[in-house]
Amino acid sequence: MSKLVNHVAATLGENDHPYRNGAWTPNFDEYDADDMEVIGTIPGDIDGIYIRNTENPVHDSIGRYHPFDGDAMLHMMRISGGKATYRNRFVRTEGFEAEAKAGGPLWAGIMGNPADSKRPGWGAHGGVKDSTSTDVVVHAGQILSTFWQCGEGYRIDPTTGATIGTESWVPDEGISAHAKTDEATGELLFFNYSKNAPYMHYGVVGADNQLKHFIPVELPGPRLPHDMAFSKNYSILNDFPLFWREELLPQNFHVPQYHPDMPSRFAVVPRLGQPDDIRWFKAAPTFVLHFLNAYEEGDELIMDGYFQNQPVPEPLKDFPAGFESMGASIDLHSFQPELHRWRFNLATGETREETLFDEYPVEFGMINPRIAGEKHRYIYSVTGEPGWFLFNGMVKHDLEAGTAEHLPFGEQRFGSEAPFVPRKNQSAEDDGYLISFITDMKQDRSECIIVDAQNISAGPVCTIILPHRICSGTHATWASAEQIGAA
Questions:
Q1: Of all residues in the chain, what percent carry a pLDDT higher than 70?
Q2: H/E element, 101
Q3: How confident is the model at residue 308 (pLDDT cuts 50, 70, 90)?
Q4: b/e code 142-174 from CB counts within 10 Å (16+ = b)
Q5: Which of 120, 14, 88 is nearest to 446 (CA)?
Q6: By C-alpha distance, which of 36, 10, 4, 6 is closest to 25?
Q7: What pLDDT, on the 0 to 100 scale, is given for residue 117?
Q8: What is the mean pLDDT of residues 292-309?
Q9: What are phi and psi of 128, to 5 degrees?
Q10: Are 48 and 6 in contact (CB under 8 A)?
Q11: In this structure, are residues 357 and 406 in contact, taking their beta carbons and an 8 Å threshold?
Q12: Closest CA to 50 of 87, 78, 90, 88
C-alpha cells in the first residue's frame, strides 16, 4: 500500500522563482509505499537501496533563494527479491528543526546578505544553513548526507529513513560534500575547507566509523574545492583558480572570481600520509565540480573528471529576469564540462592531460563502485537540459572502444544522477544496471527506472511509478544489502 506518513508545514509564499517551480517544485509529504505500479519486471538479481538527495525548501528565504539552499529530502527505493518499497523523508537537521520552531527562515542563503542571517560567519557554520542537501553516501551501514559548504554530516537509518543525528567524528571545520567510500577497505575519505589557515584538511574514517587519520593541507588562501578522488594508495585534493574575491572577505561577502592566468593544482598524498608527504602537480586552469575515479599505472597516477571550459559563464539570455547569472552558474551547457584525464607522473613530477570526449556537455558521472581506485573502462554520465539544471538523458562511455551510447529520457522528462548497480555474481565491469528517479512533467508523476548497463539505449527494463511527483535534486548513491547491514 501507499501511505502518507507525514505532511510538513511550510511557509513558502507564491513566487515565480525558476527553481521553486516546474520540475523543482518542492515536496512537503512523506510517504511509505510498497504497492507501486511496475511496468516491466524488477530484476531479481539485485539487492540493495537507491538513495537520492534533493534540495527541497520548506520556508521562504532571507534574501534571494538559490536551489542549493533547500532542505534535504531523501528519496529511497529498497529493491530485493524482485520487489520494491519506497519512502521519502526530510533530514531533520538542527537548522530544519530550528526553522520549524520559529515558523520561518533563520538563515540567508548563498545569494543573500550574510548580515541578514540570524548567525554571523561563513558557510554552514555561519550565514548559510547546514541543510545537508548536497551529497549522500552509505558508510558503516548507515546513510551519510553532507553539505557542500562544510556542514556537520548527518547519519540516517537506511531502513526507516529516520535522522539519527550529526556525525561524531566531524572536525570543527566541518566536512564537505563528496566524501568517498572505498568498498575494498570500508574506509571513508573526506576533506573540508574554510577561510582560516591552513584552509583545508583531509581525513580518513575507518570501517568502524572511527576517525583514524586527519591532517592539514596548506593552501595559499581560502579556496572553493568541491570534490576529491582516490586510488588504491593515494588521495587527490585540489586548488583551482576559482575562489573568493579577497578584498570582499573582510566584509563577509563571498563572491567567486576566476583567475585564468593561474594554474590548477592537485595535491597527491598517500592515503595515510603526513603533510610533508604531499606533492603538488600543476595543470591547465579550470574548475572541476566532480571527479570520477583515479588509479595507478606504472609511475603514473591517472585521474578522470569533468573539465570546465567556461568556469564563469556569461548570464543566460533566455531565462527569467533577475536570475540570468544564477541560471548560468548551474547550467551544464553554460560551463561546458567534458570528460578529461590528468596523468601525474610520480617519478618526474610532470602532469600530462587530455580530453577524452568533447562532443557535448556531460557531468555527474558514475563508475562501477566495486572497482573504485582501480582502472576503469566504463563511465556513466548524464546530459543536461539546455539552460537549466536538469538532466535529460544518460551516456555510457567506453574508454577502450572510444564509443558513447545514449539514452534520452524523453520530452519534459528529467532524471537524477544514475549510480551503477552491480548484478549478483557479476561477470564483467558493466554487468549490472543503472538506476534513476525520473520526473515526468507531461504526465505529472515521478518514476524509478532501471536500465541494463550493457544496453542502455534499449531503455528501462522496468519502471516503478512513485506515489507522488518528486522535486529535482543533485546526488544519489546505491548501496548493497550487505553494505546497509554493516552497522
A1: 97
A2: helix 94-102
A3: very high
A4: bbbbbbbbbbbbbbbebeebebeeebebbeebb
A5: 88
A6: 10
A7: 65
A8: 98
A9: -115, 130
A10: no
A11: no
A12: 78
Reported as a single tens digit per residue, the pLDDT across 153-201 is 999 999 999 999 999 999 999 999 999 999 999 999 999 999 899 999 9
Q: Mark 387-408 as b/e (b = at least 16 C-beta within 10 Å).
A: bbbbbbbbbbbebeeeebbebe
45-77 as b/e: b if 16+ CB within 10 A: ebbbbbbbbbbbbbbbbbbbbbbbbbbbbbbbb
DSSP labels, 200-224: EEEEEE-TTS-EEEEEE---SS---
Per-residue pLDDT averaged across 51-56, rounded? 96
* Chain mean pLDDT for the chain: 94
pLDDT average, residue stretch 387-414: 97
Range 90-110 average pLDDT:
91
Any idea which of 61-70, 71-80, 109-118 has the lowest mean pLDDT?
109-118
The whole-number pLDDT of residue 486 equals 62
Give Cβ neighbours of residue 483 (< 8 Å, ≥ 6 apart).
48, 138, 141, 183
Q: Which amino acid is at 312?
A: V
Amino acid at the residue 121: G
CA distance 269 to 230: 10
Q: Which helix (H) or strand (E) holds 483?
A: helix 481-484
Contact between residue 70 and residue 148 where contact means Cβ atoms under 8 Å apart: no
* Residue 163 CA, distance from chain mean position: 19
Amino acid type, 348: T
What single letter denotes the amino acid at residue 187?
E
User: What strands lie across the sheet with 300-308, from one edge to the other?
Assistant: 291-297, 300-308, 337-345, 351-357
At residue 64, the pLDDT reads 83
pLDDT at 427 over 70: yes
Q: How is residue 116 written as a grid cell?
A: 541578514
Cβ neighbors of 227 (< 8 A, separation 6 or more) are 177, 178, 238, 288, 289, 290, 291, 305
Residue that has been written with the C-alpha cell 577497505 in this structure: 185
pTM: 0.96
Identity of the residue numbered 191: F
- Could you list the beta-strand ranges (E) of 81-131: 83-90
Average pLDDT over residues 261-267: 98
Give the separation between CA 314 and CA 328, rounded to whole angstroms. Answer: 7
325: helix, strand or coil? helix
